[in-house]
Amino acid sequence: MNEEQQMLLDSAQRYLRDTYDFNSRRDMANSEQYISTTHWQAFAEMGWLAMPFGEQHGGLGFGMEEVALLSEEFGKHLVLEPMLESTVVAGSVLTYPGVAVESSHIDALVSGEKIYALAHQEPDTTADIDNLSAHAQHVANGLKITGNKAYISAGAVTDYFIVTAKLEGQLALFLVPKDAEGLTVTRYKTYDGRSAANLAFDMELPFSSLMARGDLARSAFMTMRDRAILGASAEALGAMQAALDTTVDYTRQRVQFGKPLSSFQALQHRMANMLIQIELCRSLVGAACRALDAGSEDARRLTLAAKVKVTSTARKVTQEAIQLHGGIATTDEYVVGHYFKRVTALESWVCSREDALVDFIRLTDAA
Amino acid sequence: MTDYAAFRLEVRQFLEASLTPELRRAGKLTTSVFSDFESSMAWQRILHAKGWAAPDWPEEYGGPGWDIHQRYIFQEECKLANAPSIIAMGIQMLGPLLMKYGTEAQKTEIIPRILSGDDVWCQGYSEPGAGSDLASLKTTAERDGDHYRVNGTKIWTSLAQHSNKIFCLVRTNKDVKPQAGISFLLMDIDLPGITIDPIVSLDGQVEQCQVFFEDVEVPVTNLVGDENDGWSVAKSLLEFERGGHNFTIDIKKQLGKVRDQALRIRGRGGRPKLEDPVFRTQLAEAEIEAMALEQTELRIKGSFAAGGNPGALSSLVKAVGTELSQQFNELSVDAVGRAITPYFPEGLDPHFEGETPVPDYATTTMAEYINNRSATIYGGTAEVQRNIIAKQILKL
Q1: Where in the numbering of this chain does the Acyl-CoA dehydrogenase/oxidase N-terminal domain appear (chain A) (predicted)?
Q2: Which domains does chain B have, with CATH numbers?
């Protein structure tokens, strides 16, 4: 780890340890606010929201490796604020070379003043990019877009949606304000304590809302997807590591049959297996981030591999964490089940495990 | 020779006529072993009027006198028709236990009220410090004339907030080895000194409670079995808890649900998710596991019917049944993908009529996935079941 990375990690660990304890996080998750503006502002002041952007956008020019460092800490503390959704995912699209967007939007995103989120997933479908029902057509003074989007992460706090739709048979990306005429936003809470929204739209938008189409839209989307996958994988890595740490602590303290649970060899082996699997994930996520930052040819294949491995491991590790705790882990007031719920939500965010697996096979066989 | 086809038809016709749309809705929206409380009780009263509230009970106590195959058919048809579940603590657990260990007075006073649903019982076994190691329990009952004075606490007491009665394991002798100093005690839950704290579960709902006892006076006549003989009474109850359930019926229902979900989701190329070879293979493999479980349950049923005792095989079935059921929860999660994310508890209330952000086919998926993690914890953890197999079958 270089000096800059160490500083980033130190500041993240310090801030989250001091301000992001589980009980205040739980109160926030149960409130009607969805996220803390205080935290969001603090994230902006510490530069976290400007991290992955180039200096031309007022950013710090960090790569995916640094994003992953921060995401992992967010995973450990179950952070509710939408850094991944807005900064990493929407930010990746808005700053992709060739994507047409007013610079004021990038300023608002980088400063954290406005929140942006991808609205791609549609009801009753997987997130397959070729399987969109939402469609756009040219009309007199702009474009008419019709369709439905569902389960948009951070949707309840989003100011601008990046909406995917088919335009003349091609993928197109639109930037749509939450209060656009003809757009209905249904906001709700999610099982992992965050927010989401469903969108129903039949709206006329100016030409300027079309950010990209065709090959450009597709490559902006795929680049965004790689970054989303690695951000989510790093967060899941943090969550499962915290789940293991919590389990180890608990089994040391919990006495049954006259001795601590941690002294039973059968349980020691299970915790050892959790550690082994987490370390394998850590290796893959790290390698994929470095490959992506270096622009290596195998970056996407590594990214997909990380997605598949992390998704199954996070599921298994957090399930084991609950099982090794027993009843206490099935309660809302105990932290370990919340790691389980968070990694479950991350499984299908932007890209499902199965889509990653199929794309991995495609890439492997094409090589 | 019973005509099972005719019996199945009779059950089906009864269910068709008696299950109101509201009750079916409650059954459909069930996300744990318990359905909506009021719906469960309403259904129990309907079954009681027909004489079918306790399928496993002998006729002398108000059971229908069915053989093991009829009971299986009844359970299966109820599940298929989306009947709400019947609360197990009275009918499945305490009733059979009193038939075996209760005094005449207990049998005549308590058993009919279990059957009618006039009394709702909850189970006070686990304590904060006594889970897998149940025998280490510390709630005490000290003899004081014709009363016991009870102090301590019980946890994971399902539905205590809806119950008017509780059966508990209490310590009546501290000076012997743990198992030898335990007694089985019945109490009214509104006795002075009893307080109930609801516990919010990981799915945001309240099903479990912690119950506190402070100088609670319980008549000595509420003892079941002999003083200090509660452990053997309790062990037989755990066998009822483990053996009285046919996992195959639930799992077949889950399988049908996953298939339906996977047909409703369009995957790559717009084709149903069920045609996705990755997903389809996983589902087929789980189905094969379910077939192995079904044949094992049939073997056990055969041994019961022949007057045998499956013994520790019920531990095998509990371990496999709960873990396989969890595997189907995961397949459901995989099938519906992102539709698991909305947290919309209103939609799980059978009386709710309104818009929900979750499609019908995914309403219960995440809550079921979360709640069913406890299936390998309650009623003896997956680890305890393996201890029993190691000890009783492998003689280790």
Answers
A1: 2-96
A2: 4-86 (no CATH), 121-229 (2.40.110.10), 245-393 (1.20.140.10)
Residue B176 has what DSSP assignment? Answer: S
Cβ <8 Å between A354 and B269: no
A 10 A CB-CB count for B236 gives: 15
Enumerate the residues of chain B whose CB falls inside 8 A of the CB of residue A332: 200-202, 204
Identify all chain A residues contacting B275, using CB atoms and an 8 Å cutoff: none
> Which pair of structure tokens corresponds to residue B3?
């005509």
**Catalytic annotation, residues of B:** 241
Of A124, A322, A344, the CB nearest to B264: A124
Task: Mark yes or no for CB contact A330/B264 under 8 Å.
Answer: no
Mark yes or no for CB contact A151/B338 under 8 Å. Answer: yes
Contact B377 A323 (CB under 8 A): yes
Does A130 have pLDDT greater than 90?
A: no
**Helix locations, B51-206, DSSP H:** 68-80, 88, 95-101, 104-116
Contact A126 B264 (CB under 8 A): no
Contact list, B178 vs chain A (CB under 8 Å): none
**For A355, nearest residue in chain B (alpha carbons):** B268
Closest B-chain CA to A320: B373
Q: How far is CA A298 from CA A111, A136, A288, B349, in A?
A: 33, 34, 8, 50
Q: Which two tokens stand for residue A170?
A: 């091609």
pLDDT digits 0-9 by tens, A150-191 = 999 999 999 999 999 999 999 999 999 999 999 999 999 999
- Which sign does the torsion angle of CA B67, B73, B75, B77 carry? negative
Euclidean distance between CA atoms A254 and A237, whole angstroms = 25
Which tens digits make up the pLDDT trace of A212-262?
Answer: 999 999 999 999 999 999 999 999 999 999 999 999 999 999 999 999 999
pLDDT at residue A170, rounded to an integer: 96
**Could you report the per-residue pLDDT of A28-86, keeping only the tens digit for each?**
999 989 999 999 999 999 999 999 999 999 899 999 999 999 999 999 999 999 999 99
Q: How close does chain A come to B142, measured CA to CA in Å?
A: 24
With beta carbons under 8 A apart, name residues in chain A contacting B132.
Answer: 256-257, 326
A274-292 CB burial, b ≥16 within 10 A, e <16: beebbeebbebbbbbbbbb
Full set of structural domains in chain A with CATH: 3-111 (1.10.540.10), 116-212 (2.40.110.10), 217-366 (1.20.140.10)
The two three-digit tokens of residue A352, written as one number = 């499902």
Tokens matching residue B322: 């709960």
Report CB contact under 8 Å: B370, A337.
yes
